[in-house]
Amino acid sequence: MSYTETLTKYMTHFVGQLLYSGLEDVVISPGSRSTPLAMTFSEHSDVKHWVHVDERSAAFFALGLAKEKQRPAALVCTSGTAAANYYPAIVEAYYSRVPLVVLTADRPHELRDVGAPQSIEQTEMYGGYVKWFHDLALAEEGLMSYVRKQAARAVEESQSNHPGPVHVNIPLREPLVPDFKLEGLWKEGAKPIPKTFHGLPQISKQQAAFFEELLFSGKKGLLVCGPHTDLDLASDITNLAARAGLPILADPLSQLRAGEHDKRNIIENYDALLKSDKWKVNLQPDFIIRLGAMPVSKAYLQWVQKHGASVDHYVVDTYASYREPSGVTTQFVWSDPVKFCKKVYERIDEDHLENEWLRKWQKMNTLAKGHMLTEHDERLNEGHAVVRLSEAMPDESVLFVGNSMPIRDVDSFFMSTPKRIKILANRGANGIDGVVSTALGVAAAGQPTTLLLGDLSFFHDLNGLLLAKMHSLPITIVVINNDGGGIFSYLPQVDQRDHFEELFGTPIGIDFKAVVEMYGGTHNRVHTWASYKRSLEESYQENGLSVVEVMTNREDHVPFHKAKWQGVAEALENWDEA
């Protein structure tokens, strides 16, 4: 058997097994050494292949695909620094528990560490940010079962326990072009490896009885739901809250604020409530049961830290891990949150329990919501841009949110709605890199998608717009342009006027219209609420890229938010005195 024949069968068995194990999408960045992988993927009709010349954007695009589909996506690149550009997305995937199968082509062993061009040390190059690493053997006869086992394991490892990225490094000798005219490809030489069945952990009857007793102990309790992607959780956690008479503090990424489930116990304005010094004390619970990761709200984090010694704290997480940055004493419950809620509420006969503790939270939430939604002037601002966006977005769609201020404004201003809107963000490492590409990956999965981000995040990933152009991906991008980093205005650095603008404010003064049109999109720059509403309506009629740029004043940002928080505090004070 010639080397080309061996290489071709080796690659078809490897790729064929990846697809048999459930892989549906691969994002390929062009290169010479990765030729066998790229061509073999593109030859198979059962996988959707996407091509992006920028490896950093390609990796975040794959991250978005995997995040939305909740199944692994693969990456393919050539040897050398191409693989290094995957690093930021791999870090994000690791911390946000998104399955990626990273396939890096490499020089054969004899060309490593000898000064060969486009050759770096790729073995275990991502360190502890991948769940599993394997340096694949060179293509040889007799290794077809072996290469299938490694492909099957790569997909399995990416999904087992807490999902995340895996890395397979693939050394390849020349010649690199496969021969797809060979007889028996994709079928002969080794049997497919069966898929692995994955079950989720759940609490026992005795453990469920413990939580039932806790809920009816007469103590003041809270359910808290942090970032979560399981849409089934909404009905189960609200059922539990209703039967136990508990408020639910719902993070914007919890998938609880939008949808048709019962929202009577959902408190979406808790961040504003907990900014009040008085109510930080008056709302102290006896116990907290948190499902999912830590919420976005810094006020919530500080509140937990303030009362940590006197509050029993339980964190329900599907897999064994320690996602508890507050530092307070915590009892971890390794259980699928959906199964946890079912196990507990099935023991409770109540239909909808109410009590004074719940009513207090509900009343305060209503007061805070009324003040947060009140508009005092016609100037554009980030908060009410979120309100109007939630009103304009179509049902059955996705809102992807950038980090820094956009996610915090969504936390403060995206109120409960019957619309079925999934809210996603890159909250693993909380970076501003790759946001455009990730959102486009989400859009490529098929759901109508809106991206909300700031001007710096948009600038940081303009290369990501290439796939929107190449594949006519429909997406509405709302860019809040305050010409710089608004979030730094909340930090002590803002008083250092000699250095603030250059080092932190970082105004870039770029006209995005020309960039958007370069990528084949439509662009609307808005200065009034009327033009904002009209531009959003028009964008949802577009079939491709549509960018709505909302021009705001960074100097207004902090005063606007502080006025809102002060207004909430005053409304609560007046209610309490009455």
TrEMBL record:
Enzyme class: transferase
Organism: Halobacillus amylolyticus
Cofactor(s) needed: Mg(2+); Mn(2+); thiamine diphosphate
Name by which UniProt lists this protein: 2-succinyl-5-enolpyruvyl-6-hydroxy-3-cyclohexene-1-carboxylate synthase
EC number assigned by the record: 2.2.1.9
GO terms for MF: 2-succinyl-5-enolpyruvyl-6-hydroxy-3-cyclohexene-1-carboxylic-acid synthase activity
Cofactor note: Binds 1 thiamine pyrophosphate per subunit.
InterPro entries, per database record: DHS-like_NAD/FAD-binding_dom (IPR029035), MenaQ_synth_MenD (IPR004433), MenD_middle (IPR032264), THDP-binding (IPR029061), Thiamin_PyroP_enz_TPP-bd_dom (IPR012001), TPP_enzyme_TPP-bd (IPR011766)
UniProt record similarity statement: Belongs to the TPP enzyme family. MenD subfamily.
Domain Thiamine pyrophosphate enzyme N-terminal TPP-binding: start-end pairs: 12-125
Oligomer status and interactors: Homodimer.
Pfam family, one: TPP_enzyme_N
Function: Catalyzes the thiamine diphosphate-dependent decarboxylation of 2-oxoglutarate and the subsequent addition of the resulting succinic semialdehyde-thiamine pyrophosphate anion to isochorismate to yield 2-succinyl-5-enolpyruvyl-6-hydroxy-3-cyclohexene-1-carboxylate (SEPHCHC).
Catalytic activity field: isochorismate + 2-oxoglutarate + H(+) = 5-enolpyruvoyl-6-hydroxy-2-succinyl-cyclohex-3-ene-1-carboxylate + CO2
All residue ranges annotated as the Menaquinone biosynthesis protein MenD middle domain in the record: 215-401
All copies of domain Thiamine pyrophosphate enzyme TPP-binding, residue ranges: 436-550
PANTHER family: 2-SUCCINYL-5-ENOLPYRUVYL-6-HYDROXY-3-CYCLOHEXENE-1-CARBOXYLATE SYNTHASE, PROTEIN PHYLLO, CHLOROPLASTIC
Keywords: Magnesium, Manganese, Menaquinone biosynthesis, Metal-binding, Thiamine pyrophosphate, Transferase
